[in-house]
Structures are given as structure tokens and as C-alpha cells.
């Protein structure tokens, strides 16, 4: 075919990559001096030990189920994402925002053909949207107790809006999406500034004395996850609207 | 078991690299880049793997006693970040592909005949 490279080039590329791959694999499983990734390293030998035992601030602190601790989220991945490494997450939200901004500049604004939706999709869309919004809400409210959180919840909520876009219904205008995005983005950082004035460090948790395992626990984690969910949902819905511009 | 993870993630990465090097269709290149990203995410998660580990979620007093059996939560948190960024960059790449299609009237990255004729 004219559009694809010749068979010879394909074979040469395959052979070169095969040799490089075998070389890297043999280095990865090599047995020499030092720590290897194939060694059975438990989290007790890593920084994760502090996060699992929740004793980052005080070395000797312990905690019980139903008691209080320095971070009361039952899901430890969540406590790493939204408490111990919150700077990472907020800067990631900024990176996502800049990507979507660049996307909005780059995508050409022209007329595109829109396929008319079938009757089945048209009838089922409201029911599907309702279910997806419910699951999305559950995911970010329970982000600190069970697997889930703001980013998956945002993706699920934006999928509900995608269903509306596919059926040609304008469920929400692009202007209100931009307003939601701006409000949530500003609130995340203003909570950070509030906690700076209350506790003395940026993004530090100031809701104390809640119990591990409760629905209302984890301090600021559910608030941040709710804000992140709506921000991600607004940004992703923006992509769908841009791709499906009339 | 970690060797299986390393082997599978390395093969995913090199399948993606092969696609990037040999394909000329822009959409295929973007899909290949996504395959590389999946391989890297798998490698990152496998760094936290331990034999017979349990999920790092507290459910009762019993799970607090088993803290040293839990898998490492830090790589999982990092992969969560990288998946979302991957989605944003893929959307950006697709927008660039649409723009390329409009300006060059082709989705293939071959040089057009005019550009070839202009040759140095």
C-alpha cells in the first residue's frame, strides 16, 4: 500500500526493537549487587510505610478502627492523593486545564456532519444519564471509603453529558461549563489559602476529630474530591462539545 | 511474578514504539502512543506489587492489624494522575490531527508531492 511503509522497513524495525527489548529485559531481571525491582520489597522498606501507619507527623502515633488519626480516610490511596501529596494533584488539575485550553485553541471551528440518533438511543438517553449521574455522585462522595474518587467520578459525570450530546440534546451550555470550571478551580485554591491562615501551612487539613470509617470523615478530602469531580467533568464535557460542534 | 509484569509491560511499550516508528497514519500513531502509556502505567503499578498482598483500604479493625501485607499505595496514586493527563494529551493530539487533515487534506504523514518536488 502506498500509505504504509514497505515490508522490509517493518521487518528491520521489528528486529531492532526486539533486540533492544531483550537487552532491557535482561538488565531488568539481572542479579547483581544493589536493590532490584524483582526483589520482594514490602512497603515497610519504603516511604509507603509512613502513609499506611498514618504517622508522618508523629513517629509513635497509632490508630484504631473507629478512632481518630492524623488522616482519617479509610482508603489509603485517597489519603496519599488528596492529603499527603495534594500539591501533586492540584498541579495535575492545572496541567489538565492547560491541555484543554490548548485543545480549544487548536481545534478548528468548522461545520461537521452530525449523524441523527436512532430511536433506541433517543428514548434511553435520559434514563442512562440519570443512572450515570447517580453512579458519579456515589463515586466521589465515597472516594475516601471505597475505590473511586474525583477523577473517575468526573469521567463518569462527563459520560452522562456525552450521552446527551450524542442524542443532540443541549443539556448544558458551554458557557455554564466554563463558569463551573472557574468556580471549582478558584475554590480549591481558596480552601488552601484558608487553611494557611487557620493552621499555618498551605492545604493542611483543619477539620479534626472525625472517625475512621464514617461517611463524613477524612477532613477536607470529600470537599476536594467533590470540587475536582466537577472540574474534571466540566473540562471533559467541554472536549465532547468541541468535537461535536454544530 | 514481578518478572511477568516487567515482561508484559516491556512488550506493550515496544509494540507501541513499533507502531510509532512504522505507521504513517496519524490516528494509528496516537493509538500506539496510548499503548506505550498503558505499558508504563502497568510497570509503575507492578513496582508496588507484593506476593499475596491485600488492597490498601481499611475496612475493619482486622485490616489495621494486616498493614504490612498491603500493597504499596504510592505507585497507584501516581498512576491515577498519569491516566488523567494521558486523556487530556490524547484529546490534544486528536485536535492536532483534525487540523492536519484540514490543512494537508490527508491523514497520512507522507510529504505531499509539492513538498517533495521542491526538494533541496
TrEMBL record, chain A:
InterPro entries: CPA3_antiporter_subunitB (IPR050622), MnhB (IPR007182). One of its GO terms (cellular component) is plasma membrane. Residues 121-236 form the Na+/H+ antiporter MnhB subunit-related protein domain. Its main location: membrane. Keywords: Cell membrane, Membrane, Transmembrane, Transmembrane helix. The keyword Transmembrane helix applies. It is found in: Cell membrane. It is a multi-pass membrane protein. The keyword Metal-binding does not apply. The chain crosses the membrane at residues 7-26, 89-108, 120-141, 147-167, 179-203, 215-234. Belongs to the CPA3 antiporters (TC 2.A.63) subunit B family. This is Multisubunit Na+/H+ antiporter, MnhB subunit. It comes from Thermoanaerobacter thermohydrosulfuricus WC1.
TrEMBL record, chain B:
This is Multisubunit Na+/H+ antiporter, MnhC subunit. The keyword Signal does not apply. The chain crosses the membrane at residues 6-22, 29-50, 77-98. The keyword Transmembrane helix applies. It is found in: Cell membrane. GO terms for cellular component: plasma membrane. Keywords: Cell membrane, Membrane, Transmembrane, Transmembrane helix. It is a multi-pass membrane protein. Its main location: membrane. Belongs to the CPA3 antiporters (TC 2.A.63) subunit C family.
